[in-house]
Amino acid sequence: MQTNQLATYAADNFLWRVEGSVGIIGLNRPERKNPLTFESYAELRDLFRNLTYASDIDVVVIHGMGGNFCSGGDVHEIIGPLTAMSMTELLAFTRMTGDLVKAMRACRQPVLCAVEGVCAGAGAILAMSSDLRYASPTAKVSFLFNRVGLAGCDMGACALLPRIIGQGRASELLYFGRSLDAEQGERWGFFNNIDDDPQALALQMAARIASGPTFANGITKMQLHQEWNMSIDQAIESEAQAQAICMQTEDFKRAYEAFATRQKAIFQGD
Fold it and tell me: How many alpha carbons lie under 13 Å from residue 198 in its C-beta half-sphere?
């Protein structure tokens, strides 16, 4: 895999295509509601790590095939084998799955998620780790780790989910493993919008982001992520430095020139 051009990348464990500068991941095991395997976890992690350096991809959209998003880790190909592993092997697995979330948050590209039907376990984590989430009326999100005898603290859920929907609501989902439907998900702030065709909406929103100042968008994503660990004073200083960097870009100059001549700015990401 080239680390500066991913348009021609051929995925082994999911679908990957590029429209303009939007990379589109299709989870593609519809007969099983698109569960993840050891291999797909690792390949998704590696793809997002490489996206950090990809010059041809500015936004990423994740969706599932066949009317469902993702049913989580495959019961037969992951859950069963995990029950027979040693602690060393288990820790290697849980660190690997956590590295997928780290890679999604660390890549410069905003990640948009289109959720239909089942979105459970690791699928719910993929949605949670995205920057924007769009749902169909059929969407049902389940952080079901409690139901299978595990803690809710999986792949960063206890850190990320409260920041999206609040501590009390996150606690309810993680303690009881209950499902969150599309309407309540939008009301709680988990979903940004509900649409009969969330994939089309996500692609529309992705195209809008990709047509904007993509270098600056990457800075926005970085600051949104890093400022969770900063004091207000630190955040203000960090944003001052980040904005000063953006003010040196050609896109900033283009925006001014377009405003001065009453034209629409055409951003180029430099």
Answer: 29
C-beta of residue 210 within 8 angstroms of C-beta of residue 22 = yes
Strand 118-120 and strand 140-142: the pairing is parallel
State the Cα–Cα distance between residues 31 and 255, nearest whole angstrom.
48
DSSP SS3 for 6: coil
What residues contact 228, with CB distance under 8 A and at least 6 apart? Answer: 163
In sequence order, the β-bridge partners of residue 17 are: 24
Q: Higher-confidence residue: 150 or 142?
A: 142
Beta bridge partners, 133, equal 113
Give yes or no for a contact between 162 and 102, defined as CB atoms under 8 angstroms apart.
Answer: no
What global pTM score does this model have? 0.93
Please report, as a single letter, which amino acid is at residue 22: V
Handedness of CA 53, 54, 55, 57 (dihedral sign): negative
Is the per-residue pLDDT at 3 higher than 90?
no
Give the end-to-end CA distance of the chain in Å, rounded to a whole number: 24
- The backbone region for 65, taken as left when phi is positive above 0, alpha when psi lies in -120 to 50, beta otherwise, is beta
> Tokens 């139901």 — which residue?
147
Q: What is the pLDDT of residues 202-240, one digit of tens each?
A: 999 999 999 999 999 999 999 999 998 899 999 999 999
